[in-house]
């Protein structure tokens, strides 16, 4: 009896020792049960302002190469852009888009955006959607990929249809209309 107890102890301890390295960072796989999906449509304007005393988008790095044209290829811009209900900033702020956009088009102006669109009012206050996408800004209308989200947008996927409302290529200021379809 005592022998079998010791054997059992050894087995238990042995198992514990063998399993121990996994504990703490891996708690086992469970089947993923997705919640029923919802479709949410969002409509807002992004204010990407590079000019003035209080810009919402600032160049944080640019390549040190001399090119024939004054293109911005390679520039990295950090943003905290306001999201507003209408095109005018006075229409009401509903959130902000924080992240980076990089000028990645060599031949034709194009950006790649890595941005988190966070909402600060209403049902989606505290939630955000993640956009990681090419943004061919030379086209007035374009589509971006929504690749994820936080809070009420957890596990989101979707797409954003963009339309440039205003752009000034001298200052770099732009106001862009976003119509986003989010499945979450
Ligand atoms: C930019 O490149 C030029 C030529 O290679 C060099 O002289 C200059 O120091 C560089 N400037 C910076 C800020 O790295
Ligand atoms: C580049 O920009 C400078 C300063 O804004 C301007 O004087 C020059 O004409 C521009 N060059 C080209 C090729 O556009
Ligand atoms: C935004 O609205 C303000 C006040 O309503 C107005 O003075 C301003 O001209 C508007 N700006 C634009 C770009 O429409
Ligand atoms: C949004 O949520 C924050 C944090 O929970 C809260 O402080 C704020 O009052 C909320 N804003 C609105 C407009 O509901
Ligand atoms: C762009 O901004 C500059 C500087 O504020 C201004 O002089 C110019 O008229 C603007 N161009 C357009 C098309 O709005």
UniProtKB/TrEMBL annotation:
GO terms for cellular component: apoplast. Its main location: secreted. It is found in: Secreted, Extracellular space, Apoplast. Pfam families: Dirigent. GO terms for biological process: phenylpropanoid biosynthetic process. The keyword Transferase does not apply. Keywords: Apoplast, Secreted, Signal. Residues 1-24 form the signal peptide. Belongs to the plant dirigent protein family. Dirigent proteins impart stereoselectivity on the phenoxy radical-coupling reaction, yielding optically active lignans from two molecules of coniferyl alcohol in the biosynthesis of lignans, flavonolignans, and alkaloids and thus plays a central role in plant secondary metabolism. Homodimer. This is Dirigent protein. It comes from Hibiscus syriacus.
């Amino acid at each position: 009896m005592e022998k079998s107890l010791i054997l059992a102890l050894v087995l238990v301890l042995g198992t514990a020792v063998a399993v121990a390295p996994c504990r703490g960072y891996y708690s086992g796989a469970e089947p993923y049960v997705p919640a029923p999906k919802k479709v949410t449509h969002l409509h807002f304007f992004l204010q990407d302002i590079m000019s003035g005393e209080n810009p919402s988008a600032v160049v944080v790095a640019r390549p040190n190469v001399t090119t024939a044209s004054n293109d911005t290829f390679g520039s990295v811009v950090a943003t905290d852009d306001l999201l507003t209900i209408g095109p005018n900033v006075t229409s009401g702020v509903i959130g902000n888009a924080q992240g980076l956009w990089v000028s990645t088009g060599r031949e034709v102006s194009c950006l790649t955006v890595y941005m988190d669109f966070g909402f600060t009012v209403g049902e989606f206050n505290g939630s955000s959607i993640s956009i990681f996408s090419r943004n061919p800004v030379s086209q007035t209308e374009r589509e971006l990929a929504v690749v994820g989200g936080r809070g009420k947008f957890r596990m989101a996927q979707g797409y954003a249809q963009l339309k440039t409302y205003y752009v000034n290529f001298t200052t770099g200021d732009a106001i862009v209309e976003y119509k986003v379809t989010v499945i979450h």
